Amino acid sequence: MLASASPRRADLLRQLRIPFEQVVSPVEEPEPDGGDPKAFVIRSATAKARAVAALLAPTRGTPGDRGSSTLVIGADTVVWCEDRVLGKPGSPEEAALTLRWLAGRQHTVCTGVAVLGPAPDRVATACETSRVTLSAMSEAAVISYVATGEPLDKAGSYAIQGLGARFVECVEGCYYNVVGLPLARLCSLLRSAGYDTDSIQDSG
């Protein structure tokens, strides 16, 4: 079970041929609190997973209930640059400000992942970090990119897998982490929960 509305995270799970259902978490994504971004994304990912587990409990049983083998995956991503923690922009104007701030700088992308179940109250968590360097951007480039709408639901106001790729000079660490779901780290958490990630499913 993927506790996320993100089409990008869903596409990454399909890429691994991991069967899943996608359920949007009923909790609002919290704003970064200015503390440790690694601790923040783990808390947020865990809250998303727990909220979806509670939502499904009346019909399917909570992960960890007798007879339930359901695992719920939660994830959250933020961008961190020079002690500023950046989530999704609240407006096109905020997106433009963020891009001007990040242009020509290196920043850190943090994704927290939580896997809930199958044992009662069992949750396994991890945080992946990657370093990304963006090129300098002209004002025209910023305005044009924001006008596409792509930055508006992205942490850091750019999509490395989309039009924002034109600004990405260097990635140090996991590329998929920057997209929003560190796949190798996720597979490690799934294995620790008893899920077989070694057998590749038939794409059918």
Low-confidence stretches: none
- Overall helicity: 25-40%
Mean pLDDT across the residues is 90
N to C succession of SSEs: HHEEHEEHEHH
Radius of gyration: 17 Å
- What composes the largest sheet? 5 strands, antiparallel
Beta content: 15-25%
Number of DSSP helical runs = 6
Give the overall shape, derived from the CA principal axes: globular
Work out the number of β strands: 5
What's the quaternary structure here? single chain
**Class of secondary structure makeup:** alpha+beta
Distance between the termini: 20 Å
Strand order of the largest sheet: 2-1-3-4-5
Descriptors for this entry?
alpha+beta, 204 residues, five-stranded antiparallel sheet, 6 helices
Short structural summary:
By secondary structure, the chain is α+β, with helices and mostly antiparallel strands. The protein has helices at 7-15, 37-60, 92-102, 139-147, 175-179, 183-192; strands at 72-81, 84-86, 106-116, 123-134, 168-172.
